[in-house]
């Protein structure tokens, strides 16, 4: 019963994505537990009362740095994971992810005994971050189990990723209910079941090889056509045995540029419709090589824009409690907002999916890019308003919806501008470089602690300013290129 097997594969993938793919982004919920457990308390000045639930300045910066490095690495891994996925298949990716996740658990379990030799908590959190892309990206090919439902399957997997930050919220609530007896060591001993579950699933249930590249999956989602430009059917195409090996052979052909085959009439019609609906953006660099695409302003202007927004997102997650405490000047209200944020972050990832779909389907790509910037500026603007619980709450709600919107827009932009043949390379490189760029939030956090007396407003104003500059640069370039493309096409038509 191949259909049943594919359903089981999708269910298992959703379970482990929910429990492992993006758990590091639940840092705001985990941080109070880390403070209570005395993680990095040894860096505090002599005489500091470590029994209170407020970290000292040095401890706070070190905890934030742990998240900064980890969040950067989880994005930087997109490129190598994509390469391993194409070369070795999803099983190898999943197994690597399970081993790294298991190693991360060991670091937290033995944190106290190892801290004299290594920074076990940093290594452990980094391991959780690196494992995430391995266990998440390797699931994308499951969208091809039922091609006509590929969008729904991708939405399930993405929703599971966005909701995975809730894991540490559940742990924090359990920790509090146990009166702080459910320690980090106990939690991660229990959590070791997750990498074991992934390992067993990869060996027993999941497909051995990848039959679709990331570019083909992107093509399914955008054009609703297969890699040969044909209408997708309800028949699953991932099978075991000889047929699977034949499909695996076919997948190697998918790595060849689309220009080596003639486009189908359906493909031409679909691309024409997408070109119109995106305002002329679709296909603008599809015939260029990956090197030409990466060298173009379409890539590096988007890199600057996406990079500063990623800094905004990760900086907000790492410092939400400290920001609200300064802006509201009320510890109880800041704790309440922190708890609301912990709940809204995973809910927003799922709740935003239908709205994101409607926006991408009904707005031109240039307008989507503008909207991305407007919301980022609005979130940043709300982050400089003092003594207003309502405005800060609105900012948190917007942020929870904005985060999944950002990731989807960047992926959508890459598929429509650069195409499907080079999608894995270009999108992976963009995400990787954004991850490197986001390490700069360590410097921003240092400024906030050492120069601005914990006032988050200067950093928020700086990020807003950079977002406006990079956003305007990208938007003006897009407008210029679209106008140029329209003029060239009109000139060709008049000559014909």
Automatic annotation (TrEMBL):
UniProt biased composition (Basic and acidic residues): 243-257
Main location: membrane
Keyword 4Fe-4S: no
Keyword RNA-binding (UniProt): no
Example of a GO cellular component annotation carried by this entry: fungal-type vacuole membrane
Keywords: Membrane, Transmembrane, Transmembrane helix, Transport
Transmembrane segments: 6-30, 91-109, 121-143, 155-175, 187-205, 298-318, 339-360, 372-405, 417-439, 459-475
InterPro entries the record matches: MFS_trans_sf (IPR036259), SLC43A_AATransporter (IPR052599)
Membrane topology: Multi-pass membrane protein
Similarity remark: Belongs to the SLC43A transporter (TC 2.A.1.44) family.
Stored PANTHER family: PROTEIN FMP42
Protein name per its UniProtKB record: Protein FMP42
Lineage per the UniProt record: Eukaryota, Fungi, Dikarya, Ascomycota, Saccharomycotina
